[in-house]
Amino acid sequence: VIGGSPFNLSFDSCGITASRNIIATPPSMTINLLVCSNGVPGCTASFQGTPSGPLTYRFDPLISTYTSYSWDFGDGNTSNALRPSHVYSSAGTYTARLIVADIGSGCRDTSQQVITVSAPGPQVCDADFLSTVSLSNGLMSFQGIHIQPGNFAYSWDFGDGNTATTPVVNHFYAAIDTYDVCLYITDNTSACNDSFCTIILPPKNAPCSAFFFETQDPQDSLTFFFLPDSNFQSYQWDFGDGTTSSNVFASHTYASGGSYNVCLIVSDVGCSDTFCTTVNAAVNTRPCDASFTTRISPFLPLEVQFNASFPQGNMSWDFGDGNTATGANPYHIYAAPDTYQVCLTITDPGRNCTTTTCQQVIVANGNSGPNCTAAFYSFPLNPGNPLDVFFAALDSNLATYSWTLGDGTTKNTPTFSHTYASAGTYNVCLTVTDGAGCVDSICNAVVISGPPAPCSAQFFANPKNNGAPNTLEFVPANVNSNYTYNWDFGDGNTSAATIPTHTYASAGTYQVMLILNGNTPGCADTVIQSVSTVNTPPPSFLMLGQVFANNAPAQDITAYLIQYDSIAGTLTAIDTFVTDTAAPAGFFFLRAVPGSYLIKVALNPADPDYNSYLPTYYVQSSTFSNATMLSGSGFPFIRIDLLGGNNPGGPGFVGGLISQGAGKNGAGDPMAGMQAMIFDDLGNPIAAAMSNEDGEYEFPSLPYGNYEVMVELWGRTPEMFPVSLTSGSPTATNIDFKVHDTWIEALKTTTSVDDLLDVQSLRMYPNPANNAVNVAFTSNNTAKMQLQILDLSGKMIKRQQMEAGVGQVNATLTTSELPQGMYLLELTLDDRLVKAEKLIIVH
Q: Can you say whether the dihedral through the CA atoms of 326, 329, 330, 335 is positive or negative?
């Protein structure tokens, strides 16, 4: 406006009016302006109104990413929801208006449209739904609306990979983003099949409020957990004692009792707020308690683990035999079985307390007989009900078992489950006999915790049995179909499942929150617990066993857990257990998942019987091809008796080299740590040896005779190397092997088995085979003949035995029932391997 004369400027900003006198140059004028946008590009409040039932309209903005939405339905009712649905009281014409604003871009815009609301008419099949968000915790609620009566099946897709099947469902979104939410409904007559999808934006919690909740640890009055009421971009905690934190969920332990002013500062886009409150860290709210529990080692009954029930302050132990220790969970090995007075003294300056607790600990003689040990273990069957306990004697092959469970109950089986009536500490005793005069007893204090309180959000985090690293299964202590569960895993991920499974991106400790809501007034609880995960495959069930050499516990062993893959036909060592000389050689594996396994044990060089006993597979086999497979999801106590070496001594010597074969990196390089076995002419194992760093192995002090040497590696089919030692040839030093991807080749340079057994013209045909494979040869001697097919892991698939006479020998083994693939075909005469070759079966 050019000039200086006054004029009147009147504004109507979409329902907000104002006026102002302006000095302007003549001529004077009056200008009316309708201002409905501030000119921000793309800023629009356009929306769509859609009938969704009798007298009902659903309103959807075309853009759903603004900070705020203000609706006026034209009948005196309003809403601040993103996508509201409104029921009008009567039919008619209404002017609906939407005002949007966005703090970040400065956008503000208004739009309105006239809608016609019809009177109620025929009911329709409609998959409409309402969505609301709780301003207190960011939890979104979705409620399906079906107009047609009937029983409906609901299927939700929340656009973030999560689903649900109930009419009303709550859902947490892990991030502020746009999500395409869909509802699918079907009635039980199949007359109604409908779906509805819409884009939603979980709003940042408003108003901007730094309010938070605090919970005092019931076990430690100096420790508090802090839970913010809303979701924001950043959090800054000040605990009032000079320490701070930027975690969403915070926990803090004060050094001493007193009142502390705790403040939280939250910030978001265009939002910042501070809230402070006082917490009282009281001293001695928990008794200064020096109680403790004990656990007798299942493998060394003279070894006891002590556990302080409430670790705090400085802890000192007196084991009653002149020895002492400090710490919360010490181990102690007693010199002799007896009853000892054990005392724990706790001194806690922070709680200004000192207390001592003493109790008698019975240390039984677990070595009273080589086949008679009364050790046992126990664990809860159900983490949701710790009153259900499983008990198992470590040796399940004894003559009798006599249990007293401390509550008046007795049992007489090696394993069983028992449900206690209440929580407490029970003195559980086991007495065993072996039927040959050996009697042994042991008593352990077993602590049973009580069931969770109703509506408690307590939960358990258990490693999940899927082999994935850093994966946990979360189990609520209270599992109830009428409860809802909302989880925050502490890494930005959430779930509304009852028992969710979550895989963390990396190993560590996380603060996990569970919000539990029940179906009765007042049934609600929230808890935050620390959970840890390690970057290893998780355990599934415990496998326990013990190793004996001539009926006496071995002292120093290595045990291998070897998993069999029936589809790939492979054997893989998945776990190793190594003892030391301080304990009889018991072993256990924690990483076993349901499946099929072999277990192998071998004495370590430090064991005094190392040269007298051979590596042995369960039950008692020198090779994996003849070992007993354990299959299932859990096994009882496993006893393995080592095979004794059968070498009477002599002037002979056998040695050689083990190296990488074709297809291996560094082909031809020596292989250290490989196991070689030597057998006599009857197939009995004589001795075992490990290759050194140069790939060399040796069997000294052998008598003259015929032998076979084999090198073993799981998943590799072995070949036998025949050797004959005589007074004229007492040494064989070129017994070499090459380890290939699927088999171990014997580089035969000495007398063959064919010559030793006087076999000529040996043929195995056809190869590839279809319905059968034939073996033909000429023999000058009678022999016990065995023809067998093995898979590439060495597992026997099919076997046929017969007597082979003098002259032409023919045998046929059917293969029509075997799947296509590669196998190993072996022929043995008088328990000696004559020939082994790869066999291909095609159909």
A: positive
Element (H, E) at 718: strand 717-718
Condensed to tens digits (0 to 9), the pLDDT of residues 275-332 reads 888 888 876 555 677 888 776 654 455 777 787 877 777 889 999 999 998 887 787 8
Report residue 484: phi and psi, to 5°: -110, 145
Q: Are 357 and 291 in contact (CB under 8 A)?
A: yes
Long-range contact set of residues 503-511: C-beta below 8 Å, sequence gap at least 24 = 503/468, 503/469, 503/470, 503/471, 504/470, 504/471, 504/472, 504/533, 505/470, 506/470, 506/535, 507/469, 507/470, 507/533, 507/534, 507/535, 508/532, 508/533, 511/247, 511/249, 511/251
Beta strand 415-419 with 424-433 is unpaired
**Torsion sign, CA atoms 465, 394, 614, 646:** negative
In the structure encoding, which two tokens stand for residue 466, read together? 């899927």
Q: What's the confidence (pLDDT) of residue 208?
A: 65
Average pLDDT for runs of 10 along the chain of length 843: 42 41 42 45 74 76 76 87 82 88 71 80 62 53 61 81 80 68 77 74 57 71 76 83 85 85 83 84 66 65 74 85 86 82 84 82 54 66 66 71 91 81 85 80 75 76 61 79 87 88 82 82 76 51 76 81 72 73 56 78 84 90 82 69 88 93 74 90 88 92 93 79 91 90 71 52 78 86 87 77 87 86 81 76 76
Take residue 627 and report the two structure tokens written for it.
């070992």
Classify residue 772 by burial, with Cβ atoms within 10 Å: 0-12, 13-18, 19+: exposed
pLDDT at residue 705 in the model: 92
- Asked whether 294 and 304 are in contact (CB, 8 A), the reply is yes
Q: CB–CB of 285/221 below 8 Å?
A: yes
CB 511 within 8 A of CB 247: yes
- Sort strands 638-641 and 541-549 into parallel, antiparallel or unpaired: parallel
Residues 511, 236: Cα–Cα separation, whole Å: 17
Q: SS3 of 174, please?
A: coil
For 120, phi and psi rounded to 5 degrees? -55, 135
In this structure, are residues 541 and 592 in contact, taking their beta carbons and an 8 Å threshold? yes
Q: What's the confidence (pLDDT) of residue 444?
A: 76
CA nearest to 502, candidates 528, 539, 473:
473
Q: Verify cis geometry, omega within 30 degrees of 0, for the bond prior to 149.
A: no
Q: What gap in Å lies between CA 421 and CA 481, rounded to an integer?
A: 25
* Residue 385 pLDDT: 65
Nearest of 148, 193, 144 to residue 167 by alpha carbon: 144
- What is the distance, to the nearest Å, from the Cα of residue 419 to the centroid of all Cα atoms in its chain? 26
Nearest alpha-carbon partner for 584 in 365, 367, 429: 367
Structure tokens at 458: 């307590």
Of 497, 457, 450, 496, nearest to 478 by C-alpha is 457
User: What is residue 534's three-state secondary structure?
Assistant: coil
